[in-house]
Amino acid sequence: MKMIKAGRLMSALLLALPAGCARPAAGPAGVPSGCDPEKSTVGWSDIAREPVLEHVSLFTGDVLGEGRAVLDAPVIAAVTGLDVPDTWLRILAAKLADDTNTDIQIVRPSEPYEMGFGTWGAADSDITESIVYSGVGRISATFTIACSPAVSGTFTAWTETKTGGLMCGDRTPPNDPYQQAARKHCPRTPQPLPSDEPIR
Question: Fewest C-beta atoms under 10 Å: which of 137, 152, 166, 169?
Answer without folding.
Answer: 152
